[in-house]
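Q: I'm building a small set of examples for a reading group on sequence design. Run inverse folding on the following structure and report the sequence directly after it, with nothing in between.
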């Protein structure tokens, strides 16, 4: 090897070391994960890594395995085989309750049993419970943080309003505030636009986009069936079908018409305009 070749090899090695040194730390890692239920394989060898500041979306048809994978991400369920690491902790080797409290989870089907005020609902994000535990009181700093989040998400005048009088869009923002109050490094959004009309959906997505600015180190994973429900801040996408990965990686590379058509088993034309994605069935024009 000539001196010049040696110099080039050394420069490449240094560049690789620098890239590894400055790459954001993994927040979530799934390695060759499988899941078996009632004798049937639901998830087949799925692997992906989410790093700090990345915003992933899992997209696919019903039965693709999105909810099952989100359960692994949230330390709610364990895989049948493979490895899941959440916030640096491997499932099966960590106390789950403490880990779950460090993960923000937004679920529009929040199982609230009584019409609590907005502030109380947000504070339950600290206890990981649906309702405030008996005789539990937040610290003064925690109450201030709750009020700050409520105001930041455009609900400042509704801190005392009860759940049953809120619109679906307002409920979605309350649940985002609830997820953020524990100052998580990982935020999971399980079909957050469910049940919203177009205006409420767009307001919610604007709120999600804002988090990339106000909480730049937080990583997120959003589950949806619809490309139109992807926030502009989406950086990466994993397309799923039948419990298998069809495509995964940066959004622009993964969300092609071919990949989306393969995932949904139907010809789909994918578009991108103004930072937002669209999808429509590809229509064949009959020959005359």
């Amino acid at each position: 090897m000539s001196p010049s070749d040696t110099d080039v090899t050394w420069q490449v090695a240094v560049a690789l070391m620098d890239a590894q040194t400055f790459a954001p730390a993994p927040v979530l890692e799934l390695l060759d994960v499988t899941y078996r239920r009632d004798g049937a394989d639901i998830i087949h060898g799925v692997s992906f890594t989410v790093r700090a500041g990345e915003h992933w979306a899992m997209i696919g048809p019903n039965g693709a395995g999105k909810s099952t994978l989100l359960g692994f991400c949230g330390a709610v369920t364990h895989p049948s085989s493979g490895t899941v690491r959440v916030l640096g902790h491997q499932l099966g080797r960590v106390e789950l309750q403490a880990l779950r409290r460090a993960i923000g989870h937004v679920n529009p089907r929040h199982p609230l049993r009584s019409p609590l005020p907005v502030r109380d609902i947000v504070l339950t994000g600290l206890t990981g419970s649906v309702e405030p535990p008996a005789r539990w009181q937040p610290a003064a700093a925690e109450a201030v943080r709750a009020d700050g989040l409520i105001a930041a998400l455009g609900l400042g005048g509704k801190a005392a309003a009860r759940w049953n009088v809120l619109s679906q869009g307002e409920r979605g923002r309350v649940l985002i505030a609830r997820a953020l109050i524990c100052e998580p490094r990982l935020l999971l959004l399980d079909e957050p636009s469910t049940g919203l009309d177009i205006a409420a959906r767009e307001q919610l997505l604007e709120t999600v986009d804002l988090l990339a600015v106000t909480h730049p180190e937080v990583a997120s994973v959003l589950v949806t069936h619809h490309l139109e429900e992807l926030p502009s801040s989406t950086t990466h996408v994993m397309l799923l079908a039948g419990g298998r990965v069809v495509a995964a990686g940066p959004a622009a590379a993964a969300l092609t018409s071919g990949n989306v058509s393969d995932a949904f088993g139907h010809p789909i034309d994918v578009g991108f305009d103004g930072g937002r994605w669209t999808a429509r069935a590809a229509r064949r024009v009959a020959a005359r």
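Residues 120 and 248 are 38 Å apart (CA to CA).
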